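Supplementary Text 2. Reproducibility record for the structural model of the 353-residue chain.

All settings were left at their defaults, and a single model was retained for analysis rather than an ensemble. We include the record here because the model underlies the residue-level annotations in Supplementary Table 4.
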Amino acid sequence: MARSITVTTPQTEYDITIDAGWIDTQKLNEIIQNRKYLIVTDETVYSHYEELLNPFECVVLPVGEGTKSLKYFEKVIDMLQDKQFNRSSVLIAFGGGVIGDLTGYVAASYMRGIHFVQIPTTMLAMVDSSVGGKVAINHTSAKNLIGAFYQPEAVYIDIHFLKTLPKKILSDGMAEVIKYGLGFDDHLFDKLETLNLDQLNDSEHEKTVLDIVETCCRIKAQIVHEDERDVAMRQLLNLGHTIGHAIEQFYQYKKYTHGQAIAIGMVVKSKIALLEKRIDQQTCERIENLFEQYHLPLELDDPKMFSTILEAIHLDKKSTGSQIKWICVDAIGKCRIEGTQYEEIVRKIKNIE
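Retained model, structure tokens:
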């Protein structure tokens, strides 16, 4: 039976529906509801689901972070204009986080806002980027610099889409899942310790995967309800991201995936927590072991590069004046926000090198 979670914000309310093997032609037609529509996807997703998507009007974009750009934003806008979309039309994001972010920002911008629906096809998008209405494209100087808060009309999650993911992409998404366990829910962390990457698509573990996705979405929905605009507690969801975004930016989104970068960021946070005696050695090892269990890195290939990479932190959107919103790990399942000077972050990281 499908699981349903309602996301409530001051302006709107919508449902996240989670199930296995239920997105088909009939469902897509139900979502469209006889409206003018466009499905936005990428080349890899389309190659896997061509039979499903072929009867529908689609724009198929290149794969990768480079698609979250002004170039492809303008390309989709031009298509909407050519097709004379209006405010009752709907955009459907059918893909991972890049497609969801780009589609959402186009929907927020075109005619000051049209309907859009999220159908995430990666673990990262299912548990994180499809929920909560943060939509954006990248600028050459920083990730997600151009964006908006714009909620979808619905999110439809089918965990069978995970079956077509390469292990690296599935691993990438598990970094966000681990974030929810490490920062918010120790029971989720415990559950993740009982699985491994290969078991995530086993039919015998389907209920467990549904439970994991539902737990993450419920945590995200509650936080979005309390802080839609990311001015207070929603910033806790950036655990590992200040360092992670700096790593991605420094390597121009080529050497490390988003999940790999934030995994390194969370391990750094855990090592600092150990150094500052907020967690013990055993807890720190549990955290590191879980990242390794899902094939995620614990450190940079060249740790000496951290000093250079730290300069990119100044560009991170969570910086406020001379302070940076630093998310601290206090225990498995518990994190908090601490306003920290950039120089203090440098000192902390150098202390664990």
